[in-house]
């Protein structure tokens, strides 16, 4: 390692810092310390006088390194896809961020140090919450390696440079491309043989079931409709190059059980209403209207018998009357609910449908009185220490889970926390039945607590990686009433779906078939059947027989879109 005096153009020091190639370096904002990483598996920190002040050994060769703005944290990217976060100043707090499948090539801290971006050699970008060591976002930024990052406008935008000779500007929740710049003439020798261009299949984000059909929303590619019996795609939206995060089949007439319309929302910020039109083409969907007033991506939806609620990254919730979704009505918002200071991540209507519970990235919960003139009933500001990942109602109380590793039980009338259950890792989803609350965590564990006494009933290592979703089911398709017979389905980033009897510490079955993270699960009401969508670009159908060992349904993969 060489240090140079730029003004005089001379080398001032030559240091044998590592035993192999130095692959990355960074300097603190006050220019008092320098960090280096090497293929010799070590990360080192040097003072301005070229003396070594700290060192950390890794289990993998290191590619890149970055200081946080304050200078006390270091992040290092590894060949094995992991990211190391280390408090070098106190020589403690080493954390391992796991998720990339390929070598990490570049790193950048958010200006506030709360978030970290990492880019891999396959073009994937991941966004991490530094306090909780949790991946909170991921997207494909480039066709080749991500070479460099730079945050702009105080972190509102991210500029990335890739080996595919493009610059990409990202905004919003990161993953929404604002602009792209590509060099027309690349200083690159032509390949010996012309490579065939292969279009990557879009990744499914959500799924919603209506009878024998399933609608699937995709990243950047609209909606597709599948027949569950044949397993074939029967319709796809045309020229709808937007990401669909939420899908909801709705019934307009409360006296009818027939599903009439499909509502979609996502990255385009607007809502679309779709209707089946068999007279045009068998089982096709026609877009009846596009509407909306929210200026951020739609992150969540919930409905009761009167309203559809949509939550957005612009901090708002909008209530729409279901009756006004029909094509003959003008779709104006019934109410715009403002109170959150961050994107709204989850919604839940109360059992009597008179109240709406919302949780968000601002770590707050808000209870809304939903009537002719909706108002805030209870505002539970800073109810958690990190993003709220789930919220549910029971007949007795409200519950919320968070990346801070806590489940909080709330008195809806008084608006205060009556129980708090803590775990060492971030919690990713929550469900409840009777006196039991079930939560999944980022390390793949499944927990059951008695919320009335705050005692843990059981916990088990359900998966090797983050659990994305957990839900209560029975073989008959109805919610469990007997808590001693709880049956839980878990879906994970490890690509598997598993069914558990947690109170009996019994693992029934593992459904293996996906080769990528499972990012959406939906249970078919009234049937022992559920569907999953995955980052491997497939939609799969699973079933079991009541009274018999759980099994995967025979050849019931609906489509492998790769």
From TrEMBL:
Which keywords does this chain's UniProt record carry? Answer: WD repeat
Keyword Calcium, does the record have it? no
SMART domains given for it? WD40
Query: Gene Ontology cellular component?
Result: telomerase holoenzyme complex
Q: Where are the WD repeats?
A: 15-47, 55-87, 97-138, 139-171, 337-378, 381-420
Give the record's GO biological process terms: telomere maintenance via recombination
Under PANTHER family, the record lists: TELOMERASE PROTEIN COMPONENT 1, TELOMERASE PROTEIN COMPONENT 1 TEP1
The entry's protein name is: Telomerase protein component 1
């Amino acid at each position: 390692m060489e240090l140079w005096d730029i003004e005089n153009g001379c080398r001032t020091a030559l240091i044998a810092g590592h035993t192999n190639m130095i692959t990355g370096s960074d300097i603190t904002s006050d220019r008092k310390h320098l960090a280096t990483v090497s293929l010799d598996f070590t990360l080192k920190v040097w003072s301005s006088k070229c003396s070594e002040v700290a060192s950390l050994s890794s289990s993998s060769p290191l590619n890149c390194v970055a200081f946080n703005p304050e200078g006390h944290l270091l992040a290092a990217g590894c060949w094995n896809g992991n990211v190391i976060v280390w408090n070098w100043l106190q020589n403690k707090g080493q954390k391992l961020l796991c998720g990339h499948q390929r070598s990490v090539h570049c790193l950048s801290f958010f200006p506030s140090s709360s978030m970290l971006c990492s880019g891999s050699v396959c073009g994937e970008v991941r966004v991490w919450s530094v306090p909780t060591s949790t991946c909170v976002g991921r997207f494909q930024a480039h066709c080749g390696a991500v070479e460099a990052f730079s945050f702009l406008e105080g972190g509102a935008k991210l500029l990335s440079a890739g080996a595919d000779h493009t610059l990409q500007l990202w905004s919003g929740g990161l993953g929404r491309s604002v602009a792209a710049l590509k060099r027309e003439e690349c200083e690159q020798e032509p390949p010996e043989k012309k490579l065939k261009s292969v279009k990557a299949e879009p990744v499914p984000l959500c799924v919603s079931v209506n009878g024998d059909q399933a609608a699937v929303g995709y990243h950047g590619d609209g909606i597709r409709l599948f027949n569950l019996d044949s397993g074939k795609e029967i319709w796809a939206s045309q020229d709808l190059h937007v990401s669909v995060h939420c899908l909801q089949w709705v019934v307009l007439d409360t006296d009818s059980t027939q599903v009439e319309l499909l509502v979609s929302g996502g990255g385009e910020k607007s809502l679309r209403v779709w209707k089946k039109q068999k007279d045009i083409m068998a089982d096709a969907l026609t877009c009846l209207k596009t509407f909306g007033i929210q200026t951020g991506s739609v992150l969540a939806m919930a409905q009761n018998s009167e309203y559809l609620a949509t939550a957005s990254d612009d901090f708002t919730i909008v209530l729409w009357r279901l009756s006004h979704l029909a094509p003959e009505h003008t779709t104006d918002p019934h109410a715009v609910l403002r109170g959150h200071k961050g994107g709204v991540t989850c919604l839940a209507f109360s059992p009597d449908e008179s109240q709406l519970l919302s949780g968000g990235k601002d770590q707050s919960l808000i209870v809304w009185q939903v009537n002719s003139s909706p108002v805030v009933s209870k505002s539970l500001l800073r109810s958690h220490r990190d993003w709220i990942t789930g919220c549910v109602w029971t007949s007795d109380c409200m519950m919320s889970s968070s990346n801070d590793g806590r489940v909080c039980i709330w008195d809806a009338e008084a608006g205060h926390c009556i129980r708090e259950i803590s775990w060492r890792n971030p919690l990713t989803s929550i469900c409840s039945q009777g006196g039991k609350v079930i939560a999944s965590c980022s390390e793949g564990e499944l927990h059951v607590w008695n919320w009335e006494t705050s005692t843990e009933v059981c916990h088990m290592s359900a998966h090797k990686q983050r659990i994305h979703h957990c839900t209560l089911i029975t073989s008959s398709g109805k919610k469990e009433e007997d808590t001693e017979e709880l049956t839980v389905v878990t879906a994970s980033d490890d690509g598997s779906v598993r069914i558990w009897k947690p109170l009996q510490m019994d693992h029934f079955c593992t459904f293996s078939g996906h080769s990528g993270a499972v990012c959406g699960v939906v249970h078919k009401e009234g049937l022992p059947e559920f569907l999953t969508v995955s980052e491997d670009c497939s939609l799969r159908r699973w079933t079991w027989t009541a009274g018999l060992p759980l099994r995967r349904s025979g050849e019931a993969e609906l489509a492998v879109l790769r």
